[in-house]
Each structure stands twice: as C-alpha cells, then as structure tokens.
Amino acid sequence: MSSHSKPLGEFDLIERFFKTGADSLGANADQSIALGIGDDCALLRPPENAEVAITSDMLIAGRHFFPDANPELLGHKALAVNLSDLAAMGARPLGFTLAIALPKADSHWLEGFSRGLLAIAKEYSCPLIGGDTTAGPLTISITAFGATPSGKAIRRSGAKPGDDIWISGAVGDARLVLAALRHEINLPADDLQEIEHRMHQPTPRIELGIQLRNIASAALDVSDGLLGDLRHILKQSHVDAEIILDKLPKSSILKKQESSIQNLFAACGGDDYEICFTAPSSQRDIIQTISHSLNLPLTLIGKTLPKKDVEEEIYLLDTFGILLSDAETAPLLNSFDHFAI
Ligand SMILES: [Mg+2]
User: Fold this and answer.
1) 222 alpha carbon to ligand 1 midpoint, in Å?
2) What is the CATH number of the domain that holds 169?
3) Is 202 in contact with 171 (CB distance < 8 Å)?
4) Which of 125, 137, 190, 241 counts the highest number of beta carbons within 10 A?
C-alpha cells in the first residue's frame, strides 16, 4: 500500500465491487438463499430432501495464474473451477463465498475481477453470499455450495467393472494454449485466438452433471489431466481401465500438432474442466440423447475392468484394441504435467 493513498476499507470493497442483491443476479428464484451478504453469516435454505455439495479452491498469483493476468478472465475462472466441481457431482449451484487477499486496493483490477466473477455467477444462478477481504499477496479463495437430491450426487466410487468411460467436450486445448503462451510451441495467432478461452474461460458442465445424476456410476471434472484424474475414479471404485488413445476428443487446432503432442496434451494436459464419467453400457442411447440436447460432444473412450492388482492400472490401446508399447505409453502414464501457471 503506498503511503499517500488511503486504503479502501473492507466494507467499502464489498459494497463497491461485490455487493449485488441476489435478485440482480437473476438468482434465488427458488428462495434457496434466505440471507445474503451483510450479516455475520449468510443463510442457505436448500431445497427439501437435498444434500448440500461444498467445494473450495484457492488460487495464488504466481502459482496458479500469472500475476498480470487479465482480472476479468481471472474472475470468471476463479468461480468456473468451483462450479466445475459442483457439476462433477451433479449438483445445482446455490451460491458462493469469496475470500480475497489483495496487495493493494486497485480499483481498476477490482472492477475487472468483479465484472468477470459476477457475470459467470449470474449465468449459472450462483450468487455471491458472503466473504472476506484482507491485505496480502494476491490470493483468491472461493467456496461454492450446490444441491443434489438426497442420495443422487455422483461420486467417484460408483464405477463397476465393464462400465463405459466417457469424456465431455474436447481435451488438451488448455495445455496447448499454455504451451503457446510459454513459447514452447509456435501456434499461429488465429489458432491461439480460437482456443484461448479454453484456458482462460473454462465452461463448467453444470447441465451435463445434473442430467447424469441417474445415469453415471462415477464422475469427476478433469482439472489436472485426463489420465491422472481418471485414476481417482479407478482407485475409489476399485477397478482398472482400458482407454483407446485415438478416441480422446481433440479440437481441430490440437489435431494440427504432431501426434505425440496431441496425445500428451489430450491425455495429460490440465485445466480442461471437462467431465469424465463412467456408466453402464445400457445407458449409451440416453447419453447420446443428452449429448444432442446439450449440443455437447460426449465421447466413449474406453471401459473399466476388474481390478487385477493392488495399484489401479490404465491400459492404453490403439484403434484396433492392441495394447500400446511401454515406450509409447510411459510418457502418458507417468506424466505429472500439472502446470502451476
Ligand atoms: Mg474436481
């Protein structure tokens, strides 16, 4: 804080940039927020027979995003990654809280940040219901609340051997954008522009999660890379998996890269925020119907298998169902490509 500028007080910050009535967000039509910002606590009134899903994510400048990142995009992403977790459980958003540490009260930055944040909050009917502000290194922590009918949340532990494995949208683009921004890969400006939003403005698959409630046996959102995240389902469901590598859905832009890059980014790149889920093969037709109704590709990429050993195993196959060699699969199965910024 420079000595000559008067710091904005906590109250001013919330009033000026974040206090928006639930009504103005187009939210709360179902009266699920009994009390929003302004008291010691917010009050949630979940629908009857609902379970409340709760998720938190912390983003630290220099670690999870570039310190000079566009604040409006950052506002979008900070909430989007939390909504993506709600989507993965089949939860409908109720509201969220924001705790934010700021090195200084920079009104230009705050205006952009709150614009991005409140726009996606409105889009998904997920109003800001409380929070805290403090001086400190730029850190954004959001906790989001959602609701599912009791017993209907999609857990990671429900996959059975022989279930299909599906992924929404396309994977690998966010990693490709990062590679381009880091100058690891030369991406034509037009191509970069076309997929940049995949890294900066991920789309939480809320409607998909809701529609999968009675269909998927397990689900999660892909934040750290498809194969690495899939392991969480395998571990908790006590199953192995086989994945047909060529089936991983990729954008036309990613398909222009050489095949080793395509595979690495699609299989291991982070930040896609697509939903990976399992379902019995008897659900294929209805899953295709959901795909059409949401205008969202859902791609069958493999199946779960009975567990053979202590450690869960992922077998990578070629188009003909032949096991790929260790030399081909090692970089994909051992990649901890969780990039920091
Ligand atoms: Mg998640």
Assistant:
1) 7
2) 3.90.650.10
3) no
4) 241
Q: pLDDT by residue (tens digit) across 237-295?
A: 999 999 999 999 999 999 999 999 999 999 999 899 999 999 999 999 999 999 999 99
Alpha-carbon distances, residue 163 vs 42, 239, 256, 303, 313 (angstroms): 41, 10, 32, 5, 15
pLDDT tens track for 10-19 = 556 666 777 6
Contacting residues for 243 by C-beta, under 8 A, at least 6 apart: 165, 227, 230, 301, 302, 314, 315, 316, 317
Is residue 194 within 8 A of residue 252, CB to CB? The reply is: no
CATH code for position 51: 3.30.1330.10
What separation in Å is there between the alpha carbon of 286 and the centre of ligand 1?
Answer: 24
Q: How far is the CA of 277 from the centre of ligand 1 (A)?
A: 12
Closest CA to 130 of 95, 101, 105, 103: 95
Structure token digits, residue 27: 């939210």
Looking at the DSSP bridge assignments, the partners of residue 240 are: 305
